[in-house]
Amino acid sequence: MKIGIVGLPNVGKSTLFNSITKAGAECANYPFCTIEPNVGVVAVPDERVEKLAEIYNPQKVTNAVVEFVDIAGLVRGASKGEGLGNKFLSHIREVDSILQVVRCFENSNIVHVDGNIDPLRDIETINLELIFADLETIEKRLERARKLLKADKKYQFEIDTLEKVKTVLNNGKCARTLEYTDEEKDVLKESFLLTIKPVLYVANVSENELENADLNSNVIRVKEFAKTENAEVIPLCVKIEEELSVLEKDEKQEMLEALGLEESGLDKLIKASYRLLGLMSFLTAGEPEVRAWTIKIGTKAPQAAGKIHSDIERGFIKAEVISFNDLMKCDGSMVQAREKGLIRQEGKEYIMQDGDIVLFRFNV
Known about the structure:
The structure is a single chain. With 364 residues, this protein is of the alpha/beta class. Helices cover 41% and strands 19% of the residues. It has helices at residues 13-21, 47-56, 85-93, 119-149, 155-170, 182-189, 217-227, 238-245, 249-259, 265-276, 301-308, 310-314, 324-329, 334-339, and strands at residues 2-6, 38-43, 60-62, 65-70, 97-103, 199-204, 232-236, 279-284, 289-296, 316-323, 344-346, 356-362. The protein has a 6-stranded mixed β-sheet with strand order 2-4-1-5-6-7, with helices on both faces. Strands 3-9-8 form a 3-stranded mixed β-sheet, with helices on both faces. A hairpin with a 4-residue loop joins β8 and β9 (289-296). The protein is flat and about 60 Å long. The two termini are 30 Å apart.
């Protein structure tokens, strides 16, 4: 699952990517220094994995991961091929969701492509380019569906669905602002719309504004806008995150405490990105390995077992399950948890819950 990091030139996008992945993507004070998308896979911070590792002292510890793609900066006219528009749009199509970095800080030494700071204008610039691209896609789909309608009336539903989206796009709003039935979602899946992808906004503030970022007028404006899309906003200072990313664990903790922060903005961001994709983790624990496995929210036990190995899904018998919180109530002792009846036997219809610790029983 991929998350594309987007933003106008010089908003802190590539610096943020560097901080997340330590991948060293070139970062300079001019547009288009990121041309080909840089890709980085990062671990999802998970205190549960750390705690289980302390209990089991395993040979190996494996966190869940999220893949981030740093996509070239966008300017007005991208939908018509301006700047690196065609590359930008093709790279956006390949990701599952969007992380949009918006600049909420003033700094005369860092040039803004539009000359001044206005995060809502920046968001609108990117959204409009994606809307124009989606309108072009929808027009093509409608033309095809109307031709097919003459032979088969079932295409009327597709036309109605596409017209519904077209109306909201023509009003300058993204497709994700609408609610859809399951049938409509099936139609739109085949359209590969850009503005239907879920989005997370990163409000990049200055160092001296970080502590009271929620009072920053630009951050407030971004949050108000995000409500219209049911989107989340993470305020952070990209410059500080870059400094934190190169520190050892103890040094990082000292700096966070000095800043009055419980966790880094990046940790919040990575966790929020994981949720944005509709993902969660179940856990397996033992001396060989403690591991978080990534599954879609709503996944049933056999399909979760298949994440470990297809044979386990094929020969699934049952799952022995205990929640992480219940295990911690027993001081991490499975023996104590079993005595208290906290370990459950679940069958094929069991829907996995975030933080389930599981042992799958199977026979092939």
